[in-house]
Specification:
alpha/beta; Nucleotidyltransferase, domain 5; 2 domains; five-stranded mixed sheet
Amino acid sequence: MRKRERFRMVPIDEINMTPLLDLTFVLLIAFMITMPLMEYGTTVTPPQLNSEKLPDDNFKSIALTAKGTILIDNDTVPGDELIARLKQLKAEQPKLQLLLRADGKCPYKEVIALMATIRRGGFADVTLVTQSED
């Protein structure tokens, strides 16, 4: 009778968490190592400069020259008057589209700053105009 009691299996009512925690930490470390590699290892191919047909009506052209001059339909606009002029255009023609032409020698920072100014002027959508490769 004593042999039977000594070898009787006792049910385990607890889950051993150690292997689960080990697996969790191994996966965490693996993801921490691979995520930065995935971020910097992504290949980005810029789009071709094939431009679509420009709208025929209801648009204004804003140009940024290589010297940093801003033109609205060939009229020079000082930077401090640009927001007021854009708000006036938006009030006069709510469905007006803006086409932004920037010189290829302009720094990217200036183009983005101009786009932010246009947004503050009330225009949510701006079309960037490029030349066709042909």
